[in-house]
Design goal:
heterotrimer; A mainly alpha; B mainly alpha; C alpha/beta; A: MetI-like fold; 2 domains; 0% strand; B: mainly alpha; 74% helix
Chain lengths: 316, 281, 431
């Protein structure tokens, strides 16, 4: 992209009060030019490839659109009505909720613990920090394949259990376990993120505060409760919102590890069901209704969580 | 960086021990990939946890010598898509982030809000219709189409990073340059953009990691005609190599190497980028 | 005002920048791409341990050597479920020109596929197999018997079983003997590939439903029968009983297709219900002489073999180079070397007039092939449930539900009755 910046000679925004309409129109023109160069390109791409598709999803969700069946017609809210009587969809909502709860709680808590342990200087802690961060840069496909091998009937995990006399567990084949196994794998991958964010929060706690608390004779737990925890509020907010959104997006792990099984609907999330319905069963109108419901839930949940957690930050 | 008094939390040897124990358990999957990449394929199924003794390069060799060049073609595609997406994203989101941070109008605030709400849109919501939009532009199943999708999808995050950073730069710096008679773009690229380097570094790493590792978007948008990226390539290869896990591990190792190197080189900025928001909220 | 013009030009440029900046990528789908004379077609394939990239490339080359003006771009389905992938491609407007072993159901009704003319089908043994509204959309290139029960002779002997079971009661008795020895009788997988789970059900539906009502699926399509009727529920029940008695290890259901095959070859179970294509892997394994095969037994011990014929190439009716696509498809399917390769690599039974399989086939293939030939000769064949691809196929998308429901029954999550009701519901949703 070779734009010769010197050809741009647009006037800087005039700081002089405009005396007449001519300079006012020039000011508007300058603002437009500024928008055209700096604002428009990004907004245009965003509009074309994100906003327009969201709008299209809303529109499709009101039709019976199915590329195998050319007679597309407007069906109003029929898709939504059907959705809430559809066991498969309701199950996927339940699966997504379970996954979300686990993913919001487990990496958050474990990440806090690991961060507190690692919150020391020196090569030793730096090295381990590096280890905990690595899964963040791994592809979910790689993580899924490795864990599928680890959790196989004759995989490393069951072999280790065998040494202590536990018979093999069907981590991914037992329908009552599979969802928790997948959640655990995702938690493993997300842990590093939470650790980084909490470490940063911990390092922003001024040492003087601890010293003051120590002089006051506060016990370690009290010190955590009254000094560390409140100052970690922003980190908690970030982690919670990011985990929440990732849990709702959960797709790659499901497709690679279980493909929605074992059996019907044990690990099929809403995101998974939406793409299956849209791309494989080809009920695109119906799938779009799922997508819209998913979007509304994510938006509401994120807004509520943000509001709640940020209020806590302000209350400090 | 400040640390708390080390004697405050119990004995001095308890902590290293706890860290080592936890870290070792946590790292088991990472160890398994490394060990099995350099182990003969036949030994992987029987002793997945054993050390590769003696280590072999056969798996990596097999991946690189595949007659259909799956690895090399995927690598080229991934490099192309990731580089193009990251460059365009960085340029567009730096300009847009700067513009929005410096605009006080109602429209500017509305646009910011609209962009930020894009941070939480799951890709599955737009994947169905995006295929139709891309078809209108004749960009379906092309690298350009995937790049444009990436740009649109990740531009909110870039704006979020850059706009936040721009607000910490005094506006006087830019005004001084502007009064000198330099054009807006000149001012931006000569004066402002260099000041944004920390934000650029963290945006580049995030975009790079996300786009390199992306799975479902290239799977659907790139389609089969334009070939695979490294992630979709791995996914495809497991079908053929189920019985030969050595090759799968070799492929996973090689596919991860570039992004791992990027991460190791830029680790500091990565963590800084992640944490700049964590302390401010 | 010149300044405005520059600004406007720049604005346009900035908007176009993201487009032009990345046009160095691969060629866009809209470009015609064909230089004078050569005609390019896309060909959707899939890769398995049997069907490697080398296999496909060599097979394609044999045809393009005959038609040098045809240029083939080979596409690869990311999983073995190429039908699901073809649907995804269609949904995003990228249906390939030529597709192999993609079930035509759904595509054909929507007018996507080229209907083969009788003159083009003259070389095929069963030119009417897999018809949809009386027309053939998928070349009926090969037959497969689905399922056969493959078993380990040494494991049978160790459990004191001298001959493979002839009746279903004998099968159950043998299972009990194996289990008493601590061997898992059946290897039944599925995992993310799902289809390996359905094979026992294909067996029981064959013996308990199709044998009595050969056109059961046509009647299901007409709404004259339902899944939740005694015959079909009985077939599901037989599978459920095998699992509840521990004859099918529910843990193995998480194994995907290739891992399931490995489990059987490594002796993790005594029997493996699978389609005839397993013979290729069986003959490649070091234990090929220890593998025997028998058909899924009927209650009274009479001969019966579920068979599917089809599995060939479909051609996109809207292919840009339709003539080249058709020529390529027929040549690919009728090429003697390609047929031999398909027999050797994937143990297919070519349903081509006058075709003779290579003489140096392994023991597993030969035994499987002989069972099929005998059943065809005795007219003791039925359709293979969940594998049909014509008018008599499950509705699009329902096959995945059948796989899931079978898993549910094996895992004990649904009773056979509940699974049948679930299938009727899914059927209604899909129609």
């Amino acid at each position: 992209m070779a734009i010769d910046v010197r050809t741009v000679r647009s006037q800087p925004v005039s700081r002089v009060r405009p005396a007449a309409g001519r300079s006012r129109s020039r000011r508007i023109r300058a603002a437009l030019a500024r928008f055209g160069v700096f604002g428009a390109p990004g907004l245009l791409v965003y509009g074309c490839f994100v906003l327009a598709p969201v709008g299209l999803s809303f529109w499709y969700s009101l039709t019976n659109y199915n590329p195998f069946n050319p007679q597309t017609r407007f069906v109003g809210l029929d898709n939504y009505r059907m959705l809430f009587g559809d066991d498969e969809f309701l199950t996927s909502l339940r699966v997504t909720s379970v996954l979300t709860v686990i993913l919001v709680i487990v990496p958050n808590l474990a990440g806090l613990g690991v961060a507190m342990l690692l919150n020391r200087k020196g090569w030793f802690y730096n090295t381990w920090r590096g280890v905990f961060f690595v899964p963040m840069v791994l592809s979910s496909v790689v993580v899924s394949i490795v864990w599928t091998r680890l959790l196989a009937d004759d995989g490393v995990v069951n072999q280790a259990l065998g040494w202590i006399g536990v018979s093999p567990v069907g981590w991914l084949s037992d329908p009552s376990l599979a969802l928790y196994s997948v959640a655990g794998i995702m938690a493993w991958q997300m842990l590093g993120f939470c650790v980084v964010v909490y470490l940063a929060g911990l390092q922003s706690v001024p040492a003087e505060l601890y010293e003051a608390a120590s002089i006051d004779g506060a016990a370690p737990f009290a010190r955590f409760r009254h000094v560390t925890w409140p100052l970690l509020a922003p980190a908690l907010t970030i982690n919670t919102v990011v985990l929440l959104i990732s849990a709702f997006k959960a797709y790659d792990h499901i497709q690679v590890i279980t493909n929605g099984g074992p059996g019907s609907g044990t690990t099929a999330t809403v995101a998974f069901l939406t793409l299956q319905t849209g791309f494989i069963a080809n009920h695109q109108g119906y799938a779009s209704a799922m997508a819209v419901v998913m979007l509304l839930i994510v938006a509401t949940a994120s807004a509520v969580v943000l509001r709640l957690l940020q209020r806590r930050e302000v209350d400090l | 960086m400040r640390t708390t008094n080390s004697s405050a939390y119990g004995g001095t040897w308890m902590r290293p021990l706890a860290v080592t124990a936890l870290g070792a358990v946590f790292a088991v999957p990472l160890y398994v990939v490394l060990a099995n990449t350099f182990k003969p394929g036949a030994d992987i199924a029987s002793s997945p946890a054993a050390l590769p003794a003696p280590p072999t390069l056969d798996n990596l060799q097999a991946v690189m010598d595949r007659p259909d060049h799956l690895f090399w073609a995927s690598l080229t595609n991934s490099l192309l898509v990731t580089t193009l997406s990251v460059v365009v994203l960085t340029v567009l989101s730096a300009m847009l982030g700067h513009y929005l941070a410096r605009t006080n109008s109602r429209w500017g605030r509305a646009a910011t809000l609209l962009l930020l709400s894009g941070l939480m849109i799951p890709p599955q919501v737009i994947l169905l219709p995006i295929t139709h939009v891309l078809r209108i532009f004749h960009l379906m199943a092309t690298v350009q189409g995937l790049v444009l999708f990436n740009v649109g999808y990740y531009v909110p995050f870039g704006v979020f990073v850059f706009a936040g950073f721009v607000r910490t730069i005094p506006v006087e710096l830019e005004e001084a340059a502007a009064i000198d008679g330099a054009g807006r773009l000149t001012v931006f690229w000569r004066i402002v953009f260099p000041l944004l380097r920390p934000a650029t570094a963290s945006a580049v790493i995030f975009f790079g990691v996300w786009i390199w590792n992306d799975f479902i978007d290239p799977l659907i948008i790139l389609g089969p005609g334009s070939g695979t990226t490294v992630t979709t390539g791995i996914y495809r290869a497991i079908g053929q190599y189920q019985a030969d896990y050595g090759t799968v591990f070799g492929l996973m190792f090689l596919a991860t190497l570039p992004v791992l190197i990027l991460y190791l080189v830029l680790q500091k900025q990565f963590v800084q980028g992640l944490t700049s928001g964590a302390t401010k909220g | 005002m010149p300044r405005t013009r520059t600004t406007a030009a720049l604005l346009a440029l900035a908007m176009a920048a993201p487009l032009s900046a990345c046009s160095v990528g691969s060629d866009s789908s809209s470009s015609s791409g064909s230089s004078k004379g050569t005609q390019e077609i896309t060909f959707l394939t899939f890769e398995t341990p049997n069907l490697t990239p080398q296999y496909w490339d060599a097979a394609i080359k044999r045809v393009t050597a005959k038609y040098p003006y045809i240029k083939v771009k080979r596409l690869v389905s990311p999983t073995a479920d190429r039908t699901a992938y073809a649907k995804q491609l269609r949904a995003s407007g990228q249906l390939p020109d030529v597709m192999i072993a993609v079930a035509p159901t759904g595509f054909a009704e929507a007018g996507d596929l080229y209907a083969w003319q009788p003159s083009e089908l003259k070389d095929f043994l069963f030119p009417g197999a897999g018809a949809i509204n009386g027309k053939i959309y998928q070349l009926p290139t090969n037959s497969q018997s689905i399922p056969n029960v493959y078993y380990r002779k040494s494991i049978f002997t160790a459990a004191g079983i001298t001959a493979p079971p002839k009746t279903y009661a004998e099968l159950l008795a043998d299972c009990a003997k194996l289990k008493a020895k601590g061997t898992t009788p059946f290897v039944v997988g599925g995992g993310k590939d799902a289809f390996p789970t359905v094979l026992p059900l294909t067996g029981t539906v064959g013996t308990d439903v199709y044998r009595k009502t050969p056109d059961w699926m046509d009647r299901r399509r007409d709404g004259k029968v339902k899944f939740a009727e005694p015959d079909f529920v009985g077939a599901l029940k037989k599978v459920g009983d095998l699992a509840s008695k521990g004859y099918i290890d529910s843990k193995m259901v998480s194994l995907d297709y290739a891992a399931t095959e490995q489990a059987f070859l490594k002796g993790k179970g005594a029997m493996y219900p699978m389609g005839s294509w397993f013979a290729a892997s069986g003959d490649k394994s070091p234990i090929k002489n220890d593998i025997g095969v028998f058909p899924w037994p009927t209650d009274d011990g009479s001969e019966l073999m579920p068979v599917y014929t089809g599995g060939g190439i479909d051609v996109n009716a809207h292919a840009k180079n339709l003539d080249a696509a058709r020529k390529f498809a027929l040549a690919f399917q009728l090429d003697q070397t390609n047929l031999d390769a398909s027999v050797k690599s994937d143990a297919l039974f070519p349903a081509i007039k006058g075709y003779k399989q290579p003489s140096d086939m392994g023991p597993v293939f030969t035994e499987t092939y002989d069972l099929w030939k005998q059943a065809v000769k005795d007219q003791a064949i039925v359709k293979a449930f969940a594998w049909e691809t014509g008018d008599d196929a499950l509705l699009p998308g329902v096959d995945a539900k059948v796989f899931a429901a079978t898993q549910d029954v094996i895992l004990g999550r649904k009773s056979p009755e509940a699974a049948a009701v679930y299938l009727d519901d899914e059927w209604k949703k899909a129609s």
